[in-house]
Amino acid sequence: MKHESYENTFEVKKTQESFSDWLNKPYISPNLQKSLVTANLLIIPIEGVRDYKGPVFPDGTADLFLYLKENAQNKIIPEICIDDEDYVELVMHWDLITIGTIIVTDLVAPLAVNIIYDFLKARLGQKFSKTHVKIEIIIDKEGQSTHIFYEGPSEELSDKILPVVKKISEK
Amino acid sequence: MNIKYITKQLKRVNLNYNIRKSTRILKDLKKIKKIAVKQNDQKKAKELWCFEQILHVQNQYIDAYNLLKLKKYYEVWNSLERFEIGYSSLLKHFSDPDDEYWLEFMNKHVIQYQSIFPYNMFMSPEYLKMEVKCSICNQVINIRNPCGHKKGEIYDGEMCTHLITKGEVIGTSLVFSPGQKYSVVFKNDPKTGQTIDHYNYSSVKWVIDRLQSPFHNWDLEWTKIRQPHSKFAHMKKDDECPCESGKKYKDCCLLESGVLRPHCQIIFSVAPPDNLTMYEYFD
């Protein structure tokens, strides 16, 4: 398999996907489901990677989850769609940083984008300006969802995504 | 050695790089750090970790220079990567605005060395991290109940890292920009099974032949200039243009005064030996 290094993509589209889709996955235990119901931000896994049967999360997701919890300002209630003992990270050894996919309610979406941007700055240090990132954000606004896909320079992430997120949030 | 003497040695690396006793410096730093940890002086222990790390990155940089002189290019490449990793760990904890320890100088030159290396294709393993432990407390990392130690932070004079204790390789990719630079793709001799280094190191060799110390400054500027058509006499008009535009030679550079090719200009702060050429053409 040969990867081309970088794409610059920014897409915004309507989607049917929402919080409720992720509560009933077979790998979500009843106990975990109770926690997920109270969350307003879910980190969701990648399914069907190669021959691996279980869901996986991009490298660094555990760090992002911790960072979100520490910087939530009592507004964001983050959760991750997996039980602790089933948590597995996928490492792709090239220098594109994959943040993965999050579903977030419209009201806290702008704050979530800011926190993710700060997380990237802290994680990448001096490489921040030279690194490309990939992220998918699904904004759930009372059942109507918008899917945002961004792949491009990390330092432009906030400038690209935030205006769209704010517009949806303020509607 | 006391800490004052050690820091003096680290600051004078440009003068003592080939005579200083690094093993002795490291041993003494560890001894002083042990006392700081015993007294629970976390600030001092962290400072001593920083000096250890400075010694480590300086040594990687000096090793890279010495290996370059020996033309052991792949080993150089790995030393440069080890410098890069050590330097980025150090940056979070150590500020050196006047570059007294030559950190910024070395980092600039490591980036420059890397940019003139011919490696452009890397093998990239994709793998699953199924169990990860904290290097400080050896606890399995739990996403909802973490041990409290933060990756990259310093505890008792040691940096917290995460160790993968269970994993699975699920694939391999060829990439241009690897997460880990050591995974360079080399050819293999099918008869002997031996690795063949097929890369052209002319640019790297050109620089190292002209440098007389790892701490002599040099600057590099990549541009493009037109090379005379006589250098491309073996090319046919219908061949792809040697400028790599994707067009035919006759529809591209053959219409111009020469073929547009990458040109690297290097400026040395200390003049290279007189017997060496100032210009060279590399394929």
With helices defined by DSSP (H or I, 4 residues minimum), what is the helix count of chain A? 5
Order of helices and strands of chain A: EHHEEHEEEHEEH
Helix-strand makeup class of chain B:
alpha+beta
Strand content of chain B: 15-25%
Mean pLDDT of chain A: 89
Q: Biggest sheet of chain A: strands side by side, in what order?
A: 1-8-7-6-2-4
Largest sheet of chain B: 2 strands, antiparallel
Given helix and strand content, the structural type of chain A is alpha/beta
Tell me what the structure shows.
- The complex is a heterodimer of chains A (171) and B (283).
- By secondary structure, chain A is an alpha/beta fold.
- In chain A, 32% of the residues lie in helices and 29% in strands.
- In chain A, the strands form two sheets. Chain A has a six-stranded mixed β-sheet with strand order 1-8-7-6-2-4, with helices on one face.
- The model of chain A has no long low-confidence stretch (mean pLDDT 89).
- The longest helix of chain B is centred in the first third of the chain and has 28 residues, at 42-69.
- Chains A and B meet through helix 3 and strand 5 of A and strand 1 and strand 4 of B.
- Strand 5 of chain A pairs antiparallel with strand 1 of chain B.
Key structural traits:
heterodimer, A: about 170 residues, alpha/beta, six-stranded mixed beta sheet, two-stranded parallel sheet, about 30% helix, about 30% strand, B: about 280 residues, alpha+beta, two-stranded antiparallel ribbon, two-stranded antiparallel sheet, 7 helices, 8 strands, about 20% strand
